[in-house]
Amino acid sequence: MSAKQTLGFQTEVKQLLQLMIHSLYSNKEIFLRELVSNASDAADKLRFEAIARPELFEQDAELKIRISVDADNRTVTIADNGIGMSREEVIDHLGTIAKSGTKAFFESLTGDDKKDANLIGQFGVGFYSAFIVADKVTVTTRRAGQPASEAVRWESAGEGEYSIESVDKPGRGTEIVLHLKDGEDEFLSEWKLRQIVRTYSDHISIPIEMKKAPSYGEDGQPVESDELEAVNQASALWTRSKNDISDEQYKEFYKHVAHDFTDPLAWSHARVEGRQEYTELLYIPARAPFDLYERERKQGIKLYVRRVFIMEDTEKLMPHYLRFVRGVIDSSDLPLNVSREILQQSRDIDTIRAGCVKKVLGLLEDLATNRADDYTSFWKEFGQVLKEGVGEDFANKERIAKLLRFATTHGDSDAQVVSLSDYVGRMKEGQDKIYFITADSYAAAKNSPHLEVFRKKGVEVLLLSDRVDEWLAASLTEFDGKALVSVAKGSLDLGALDDEADKEAQQAAEENARPVVDRLKTALADKVADVRATARLIDSPACLVVGENDMSAHLERLLKAAGQ
Ligand code: ADP
Ligand code: MG
Predict the structure, then answer these.
(1) CA Rg, the chain, in Å?
(2) Where is this region: A (predicted)?
(3) Measured between alpha carbons, how far is 318 from 533 in angstroms, rounded to an integer?
(4) Residue 125 CA: which ligand 1 atom is closest?
(5) Which of 13, 244, 287, 309 could disulfide-link 9, Cβ–Cβ 3.0 to 4.6 Å?
């Protein structure tokens, strides 16, 4: 047994603890949900590792969670017989925050408790939420496969530091003892704890056991029993029939799988039969996580095979442009020993993935049609990511194109609310193209001199100013049989939108300006490819255009900025 060691928390952990205790106090019972969620994850991990190493079960294969109360010592204990943690894991997981986006998160804090409580919800607080109600937390844990003498005890008052020492623990798994703060005695009530478990953790697939509720004898006195019983339904939520699952249960399950604090925006739950049999329960989050644009994302879709958790995958189960989707896929057909390598080239997985992509697109279409406000809020959070899909997912390009939303000259704000179908519905007589302009910012797009002639003719133009829009424009060349055309390219042909008068004006402009144009051509000979007179500009004296087949000026700037 090693001597007790005292270590300091990572700075971020200290900040997080402070913030959490203040801002989440009004919702303090969530600590139980978080600790139960972790215990359930630990059971999943053990079951997975035991596929290859069944001896890890150590004659104790019934995975469960146990919650108990010691009123005299004012403690609540949450114990599991899951995977447990080694000493290194304890230090890594309970002393630091490894999440990507952590720095950005702390920079975004405002100091206003209300706003920060929201932010912290998106960030997720997990284990540390124990300190909302406890002034000391003792974790005793032994990793499956390690001898009883290799267990670890971690203890902290949630201030600057924690202690860690080696101890004996015969049973595998983790036991967390919360020493309640003064004033938190309500959590000593088993009745209260049962209620919290039913509210937040009913969906957990293994039993959450507590002492049986007392029965009442004829004299009306409670008869206490030492028997244990499961408080939750203890079956995987996604295997239950839709009719038996309430919206609240769907939402709580989401918070568990996605490690999110906010309710999801929408979900799809279906059992799919056919070439591959599987159940999918997929969610669209309400808010973008901090690491949406980070390469090292950890969160994705959880893959189960016949109820056994196999892995959480960020690439193989959902395409990159739907990387915000969270949830579970449970296959009936894949082998239990499916590895990441096998997944990489599995046709079966491709079938499942294609089916799930269709479900998600269907879900988004349904939102767009029936819950317009929610779709607008979805678009604000994830629209830029969805736009990547037009170039990435050839098979679903049309469906994705219909889901796109843009700012246009029809409105006067940068809100992206116009669909391509809206645009087509408003096209002018004789108009056969969809016009767009790309720029660094909404303001630059809106004030471009290229738009003058379109304004004059009352023709709507899409104003594209997101980073991804150049790539979008390059991959989306037509919609509904109409070509998408940049207003800043070449000698723009307005087709039937130009009437005779316009053509005459153009000719006159060319004639009148010939001497000036010739002089400019000579003066700028090595700087431009051509100089042309135009009748299209109304307020501006001149503008730059790029050749029909050249990169747009904006794309050129982007590439330069990226060092290419
Ligand atoms: P998250 O669950 O989002 O990863 P938490 O703060 O809830 O974040 O937990 C941090 C980590 O601590 C977990 O990822 C896990 O590795 C470890 N952990 C927490 N509780 C347990 C437990 N009961 N058994 C095993 N590992 C645990
Ligand atoms: Mg957790």
Answers:
(1) 30
(2) 1-340
(3) 51
(4) 6
(5) 13
Sort 415 into a burial class: Cβ within 10 Å, 0-12 / 13-18 / 19+: middle
User: Measuring from atom 11 of ligand 1, which residue has the nearest CA?
Assistant: 93
Note the residue count of the chain: 564
Catalogue the long-range contacts made by 252-256 (C-beta closer than 8 Å, 24 or more residues apart).
252/33, 252/199, 252/200, 252/201, 252/202, 252/203, 253/203, 253/281, 254/283, 254/285, 254/326, 254/327, 255/33, 255/37, 255/200, 256/33, 256/37, 256/40, 256/201, 256/203, 256/204
pLDDT digits (tens, 9 = 90+) for 374-390: 999 999 999 999 999 99
| % of the chain surpassing 70 pLDDT | 92
- Tell me how far the alpha carbon of residue 127 lies from the centroid of ligand 1, in angstroms: 6
Would you call 182 helix, strand, or coil by DSSP?
A: coil
The greatest distance separating any two alpha carbons of the chain, rounded to the nearest whole angstrom, comes to 112
Question: Within a 10 A sphere around the Cβ of 275, how many other Cβ atoms?
Answer: 11
Which of the listed residues 46, 127, 261 should we mutate to test ligand 1's pocket, taking the one with most ligand atoms within 8 A of CB? Answer: 127
**Ligand 1 probe mutation, 12, 35, 41, most atoms within 8 A of CB:** 41
Q: Residue with the nearest Cα to atom 20 of ligand 1?
A: 38
Using the mean position of ligand 2's atoms as its centre, give its distance from the Cα of residue 438 in Å. Answer: 42
How many CB atoms are located within 10 Å of the residue 471 CB?
A: 17
* Span 200-247, pLDDT tens digits: 999 999 999 999 988 887 888 888 888 999 999 999 999 999 999 999
39-43, 80-84, 333-337, 558-562: segment of lowest average pLDDT: 558-562
124 touches ligand 1 (CB under 6 Å): yes
The pLDDT, as a whole number, for residue 2 is 67
Can you tell me the distance from the alpha carbon of 82 to that of 143, in angstroms, rounded to the nearest whole number? 8
